[in-house]
């Protein structure tokens, strides 16, 4: 649904920037895998998020959250404390950065 509504609402455009669209699609796929995965495979999915984020502030590398950030944040919130082990440092920092933004705080209050 995120992919459909993202394109419908113009959050990202497959035609004008295929690389960015592919990155958003990757984030959506990782989020879905994270929510659907078992405890035993969650670690590898978290590693995918770590790699996707790298040292960037947000998934797409800019100074603003995008659909990719919202979808991954939502997936991590959905699994909550069902994560065995420690959340990778860069993912924890990204979650903290997102949590400071009003739109994430509003969404978090609704959970």
List strands and helices in order, with pairings:
Layout: H1 2-8, H2 18-36, H3 42-53, H4 67-79, H5 89-99, H6 102-110
Helix pairs in contact: 2-3, 2-4, 3-5
Order of helices and strands: HHHHHH
Percentage of residues in strands: under 5%
Distance between the ends: 19 Å
- H/I helix tally: 6
Low-confidence stretches: none
**Which CATH architecture?**
Up-down Bundle
State the total count of DSSP E strands: 0
Kindly give the count of domains. 1
CATH topology: Glutathione S-transferase Yfyf (Class Pi), Chain A, domain 2
Mean pLDDT: 82
Summarize the entry for a quick read.
The chain is mostly helical and 111 residues long. 64% of the residues lie in helices and 0% in strands. The protein starts with a helix and ends with a helix.
Please describe what this structure looks like.
This protein is an all-alpha fold and 111 residues long. Helices cover 64% and strands 0% of the residues. The chain has a single domain, classed as Glutathione S-transferase Yfyf (Class Pi), Chain A, domain 2 (Up-down Bundle).
């Amino acid at each position: 649904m995120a992919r459909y509504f993202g394109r419908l609402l113009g959050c990202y455009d497959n035609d004008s920037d295929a690389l960015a669209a592919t990155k958003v699609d990757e984030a959506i796929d990782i989020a879905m895998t994270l929510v659907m995965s078992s405890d035993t495979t969650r670690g590898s999915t978290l590693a995918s998020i770590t790699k996707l984020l790298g040292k960037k502030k947000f998934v797409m590398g800019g100074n603003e959250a995008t659909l990719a950030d919202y979808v991954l944040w939502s997936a991590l919130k959905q699994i909550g404390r069902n994560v065995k082990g420690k959340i990778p440092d860069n993912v924890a920092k990204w979650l903290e950065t997102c949590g400071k933004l009003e739109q994430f705080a509003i969404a978090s209050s609704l959970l």
